[in-house]
Fold Str. FM013.
Amino acid sequence: MATIAISWGTVKSLLIFFGPVIVPRLITAYRSLRVSIASRPPPRPLPAAPGRALNILFGGIVFFLLLSLPFNPHAPEPNIFSQTRSRLNTPTDVIFNRLARLRPDNFLTEADSLLQSKFTSLGARKVYLTYGPDALVSCQYCSFDNLYTYLMYYLPFHVLLPHLGHLLLLGVATSAPIAGREASRWRVKFTLAGLVLAAIDIYIMATYDAIQGAPRSVRAGQTPPSGLYHHITLLRPLAFVICDVICSVVLWLSATNRFFFKPPSTVEQVDGAVSMAVQTLVGANTKLHAASVTRNAVVRDSTLKNRDDLYWRTMVNAENPTQGPGEGGEQILNNIWEEEEVARAMSRVMAGQGGIDLAQLGVNANDFVRNVTEGLE
């Protein structure tokens, strides 16, 4: 193989040309990295939403790892050159006679016979090594004069479909409704990584030449050729595994604030403040409602009502020592609970005629009281 010699003068010229552009960018990136590390918050446990994203990615990793194993049910068979220890220039009859010895009862299968009928030229062997036996046998519109027709047959189901499935997995794992904001911020970058994998795969399949790209010993007919199809079918899911592992590590580091910390934007800070204010108002409203319910309960109970009246009479007398004992808090306003219609309705409910589940009502009341009195001694 020819080698390209690069002199030290060429290297210095490249450094002088690209140095003023690259060095400031490297310095800026280093400073921003130091600032982000210094200002990051302490690590936190993994939130639930990014945990769901990691579970999805883990499922994809296991699935693609199984597909990358050579003994999985969908793995391609070793190519017939490796099975029969045949060379690239071995006659077709010799190859398939050797293959028949490896089959049950020393007979070729129907698929072997069909492949033998197509194995007529060096171009057919190149197609077999590059795109596999299915493209060579099943493609009806392909021609050895234009090998790109076999590429068009091979790409949709063998390249594009697996990559679309991988992109779908990344999209689900970074969707905001499922994985939350921490994972959705990586959606574009993870999608670009999947698209780069697809572009590399398509480029390899479009430019690889099974004859010219083979070692010299294979071209000279000394060693059996190893086809691209049989290797890349197992390497493709392995590339998905590596990509998903990297995405999982990045997502875990960012979700736990260990690295790649991104401070919340102004809009997110305002939304958080508004949400906190709304929660505070809701809590205050709940407390006020609880106080109203408690007051109504006190008024309706004679013992508690007498104690409450005594308390307020004592307070009035303490604040107004000159006021007579019969004045002050003796006038009690009629309560809504004491109205005739309300009393009849409550009587029907207590008698079990109102269609209300009293047991469930008691449970709800206990929960309500527990929430209201939480933190009180």
